[in-house]
Amino acid sequence: MWFLLSSKYLNVMEMPFLSVNNNYIRNNLQNCIMPLSFDFMVIGGGTGGLRTALYAASHGKKTVMIEPGVIGGTCLNYGCIPTKALLQSVHIYHLAKNAKEFGISTGKVSYSFKGVMKRMKEIVKDGQDHIKESVKAPNLTVVRKPAKFLSSNTVQAGNETYQADKIVIATGSRSTVFAIPGLDKAGYMTSDDVLKLEKLPKSLIIIGGGYISMELATFFNGLGCKVTILERLPRCLAVLDQDITDYLTAGYVEEGVDIHTNVNIMMVRKQKGKFTIETNDVRDPNSKKVTYKADKILLSVGRSPNTEGLNLDAAGVKLTK
User: Fold this and answer.
1) Do 160 and 38 contact (CB within 8 A), yes or no?
2) pLDDT digits (tens, 9 = 90+) for 86-102
3) Cα separation of 44 and 47, whole Å?
4) How much is the average pLDDT of 46-74?
5) Cα–Cα distance between 303 and 18 in angstroms, integer?
6) Are 203 and 262 within one domain?
7) Are 93 and 109 in contact (CB under 8 A)?
8) d(Cα 216, Cα 201) in Å, to the nearest integer?
9) Is residue 45 within 8 Å of 148, Cβ to Cβ?
């Protein structure tokens, strides 16, 4: 006698009559469940993954997109769009303050930090609402579970397995976290956490001098927060040519941002609500210790790929360091 087992009606992992001693039966029943078959699979629903999935579906390919988090990825939810919204508010604030230069008279110009953050969140929500409609496209199935490769063309997500002729991995990245003594205990923000702030800190130390750091330094400094940047390399924005970084650094310093390079962070502490960072010169271990203090710390030392949990070995994908 044969039975057709479908994971839509049967979860073999929850069958009470299969005891712990029947793992062999349990595992083989699970393997009997046929994977859902697609022409095209995209793992990741960020800017690249979403666009790829929609394109494939629009060309008649039966497509599945697997994304456990917020669809739209970093750009819409944590990166390009919200940060540009914040910078635009700062830009308008400074234009209004300097309106007299353009022959325009204004009263006292001020800003509402809650209002600035509210506008940013509304812009993000508009994008999210648009995406919710776009993923209703024909030929597209969206799965909201983490993906794990079982083989080169088979992926498990939740209790289901999915198979596709072509698979695109577009899982994006996250903020890199370095092991700095005392940092975890003291606490810190990443660029994601900045978007959740309800109050502007009076002072901020940014660890790292890359483009994300400098962008957020523009925002905080523009609203009156005292910003200090600590960069381990000889200059900020080191991916750019030095003549460009020299020009930009001079501009930041002129606007009141403190920039320190060749900084080695020795210890981070939090005492009486203030963060203290002890440093010395990365070029000389015996150099004089320098201490910096602020109300908040922002860790911004780059991005790392989201590959954990994908079981890429099963797909035959090898990673380099």
Assistant:
1) no
2) 999 999 999 999 999 99
3) 9
4) 97
5) 45
6) yes
7) yes
8) 13
9) no
Number of domain units in the chain? 3
Q: Would you say the C-alpha torsion 41, 43, 48, 51 has a positive or negative sign? A: positive
Q: Which two tokens stand for residue 24?
A: 């062999």
Residues 6+ apart with CB under 8 A from 90: 218, 219, 222, 223
pLDDT tens digits for range 209-255: 999 999 999 999 999 999 999 999 999 999 999 999 999 999 999 99
Q: Give me the CATH number covering residue 144.
A: 3.50.50.60
Q: Which one, of 66, 192, 50, lies nearest residue 134 by Cα?
A: 50
Q: pTM here?
A: 0.86
Asked if the structure places residue 88 within a domain, the reply is yes
What is the 3 state secondary structure string of the chain? CCCCCCCCCCCHHHCCCCCHHHHHHHHHHHHHCCCEEEEEEEECCCHHHHHHHHHHHHCCCCEEEECCCCCCHHHHHCCHHHHHHHHHHHHHHHHHHCHHHHCCCCCCCCCCHHHHHHHHHHHHHHHHHHHHHHCCCCCEEEECCCEEEEECCEEEECCEEEEEEEEEECCCEEECCCCCCCHHHHCCECHHHHCCCCCCCCEEEEECCCHHHHHHHHHHHHCCCEEEEECCCCCCCCCCCHHHHHHHHHHHHHCCCEEECCEEEEEEEEECCEEEEEEEECCCCCCCCEEEEECEEEECCCEEECCCCCCHHHHCCCCCC
For residues 138 and 55, state if they share a domain. Answer: yes
What is the domain extent for residue 215?
A: 177-301
Spatial contact of 82 and 120, defined as CB atoms under 8 Å apart: yes
CA end-to-end span of the chain:
52
Q: What are phi and psi of 275, to 5 degrees?
A: -95, 135
